[in-house]
Input
Amino acid sequence: MFLFKLKDKPEICVEVDQLLPEKLKGLNLKEVSSLKVRLGRLEVNAEEIFDIEKSDGTVIFEGKWLERVKRIGFGMREGEILVKGNAGMYTGAFMKGGKIVVEGNTDRFAGMNMSDGEIIIRGNAGDYTGSGYRGDAGMKGGRILVEGNAGDEVGIKMKGGEIVVMGEAGLFFGGMMNGGIARAKRAIRTGANMKNGIIVLEQAREDEILPGFIYSGKDRFENRTYHIFEGDKAVRKSKGKLLIRNLE
Amino acid sequence: MKLVLKNGTVFDPMNGINGEKMDIFIKNGRIVNKIRFGAKEIDLKGKVVMPGGFDIHTHIAGGKENVGRLMRPEDSLKNLVPRKGRLRSGSGKSVLSIHITGYEYAKMGYTTALTPATPPLMARHTHHELNEIPILDKAMFPLFDGNWFVMDRIADKDYEAIKNYVAWLISATKGYAIKVVNPGGTEAWGWGKNVDSIDDEVPEFGVTPREILEALIFAAEELRLPHSVHLHCNNLGEPGNYETTVETIKLTGKFERGDRPLLHLTHIQFHCYAGDNWKNFESGTEEVVKEVVKHDVTIDTGNLMFGDTTTMTADGPMEYHLQLLTGRKWANKDVELETAPGVTPIFYSRKSPVNSIQWAIGLEIPLLLPAEKVMITTDHPNGAPFTKYPEIIALLMSRKYREIMLEKVNRAASSRTMLGSIDREYNLYEIAMVTRANQAKTAGFTDRGHLGEGAIADIAVYDLPAEPDTSDYESIIRAFSNAYMTIKRGEVVVRNGEVVNPTVGVTRYLDLNYDKWIEKDIGLYYRDYYSVSMQNYIVGIDEIRRCESVSVQA
Output
């Protein structure tokens, strides 16, 4: 496939939702150079922003200021994207398949509304990772792995799939959740207004758990023993589960 | 500006023209009998010419429409329209932004749209939104259902005051007709209740929906309003509600004189349900249709089409119950002393037995009634966005399309309604009736909905043969969704389904006479209850961009 190397620090954020593996398949270098990249209200050729080279298998983004590149893998269906650095907003939003690996951090709304595929974030993830577009239900399927920490409202309104945060997550982790599974080491105000689905935390203090959750004893889940809370009782007919490994 | 449309196949039901080849002459925005010279000619050989489409019930502007827009950013995302030449940008699929509304209607050959159910307090907002809707001519109906003044006067049996109040309020809000939504129910909702039949009492006021309706029909008749009382019945969407609907239609019997309709029952599809609960829910269309034919009432269908949409009515309790069923977000917008609209999104699913039956009822009604009695609406955006009209037209015209759809939807649609057994297919003459002529006539727009001399030159041209092949329903949908040409007041605004000229439409309102003493009585309500003063309440003529007033001699 192709390697896109950011030439210079873009003055405003660049949107690259045309540079998807399925669209680049079978194109030659010249055709790729003239693909459109959105720069504010203008559309410019990709070659004006990136140095483009051939590479094997994966689509690679490289450069120092990649956090100013938005919509990497926006709505992608297949193939693989590797981001050697930080990625901007909406990375892997509306993703329907394939794989994205980000070696640095991601900005907000990574994996928004995704329905399938995989996103691996080696650094930290921003707010609203795996959430929905404003007003819409959240991620429906697929998997997001965050090796660092994550921001606020991660997995909000999610309906399916899996979010794994190896570090700590921020406020309202799994809020208004309706299905799927969300894991983190620790989080704040976890599962507020959740209706369905499972949230797994490694650690939590007893007074951190929201009053809408009711303790229902210890049980085994995936071959480990957890403290189980059911809720959020603030929602009618809620069937959500909050699993906590170490309750302090 | 002179224009001649040559060789088109004309369907003009009001003048009895059924598929005749003829020329139409346009001069200064109106249709004339003959132009001698100097006219621009447009050849429309092999095309169908109809009067411009007329939508009698569509929620396109006002307070709750804006709540819907604010509440549904995800709906905007589904349809993003960039700026293009002189056309403005916009977004939205079920809650469209203002400019897009005008463009989408014009693309389908529609030229007039009436927005019902504006709380009088929101009239200013509505007019400012209507001002910005391009191309279309518009009018607005203020709400009278939960109005404190009306209910107080009914309790005192002071019908003269109600008549004067109606005249004052319609003039003050620059409205066009009386709109009533779930009479009494929205006020009862203020107490967490609803009314279950037309003889239930409204808490605190001690009046019944029957009394409210009778008083307002009396007022409309006395004032000789061009459009009858525009009613959204009680118990919308409840299983077994057809009995309430039948009762309501019978109530008009006492006013009957036979010369004009007394009541317009809007989105009647939502009021034709039999059964006791959602499990044995079925169609009650037959009973309702019998009464509609017998009495001086008009109806529009309120078709439901599958897909995602936003429901919004001034019927707060109904929206609350709907929200409990779907579990989705909702908003209640209380308007002091007047009404309490609600908004909630909904997804009508083909797999759902209830939605499938609702869909089938919406088609049963026009197929069981004579075309003279039918008007097609979707109660935009409650049953479906108005952009689904071409599909409904195709469903009415093509039995094959109905059969294909019946296969795809839940089988309850076949087993619990009569849709599968109806063979009738609409022809273009009847389509012209149900999408324009009947509505213009019912709404009292005498210069619309026909192509006779003196009519405003609102014309839609479709790329269809005079007798289209009904099995090829896809081409019918295509033709009606992209008008070959739309002419608004003698100007070509749409060509080949593309808007080429976003003109400014006109807002029509009624100028009514009332006795001045009523202002003193009304003033007390502003002093004691309203949070605004009476002077700020009245919408001035200068606030309407282009207006035309209609005077009625009472």
Observations:
- Chain B has one domain: 50-499.
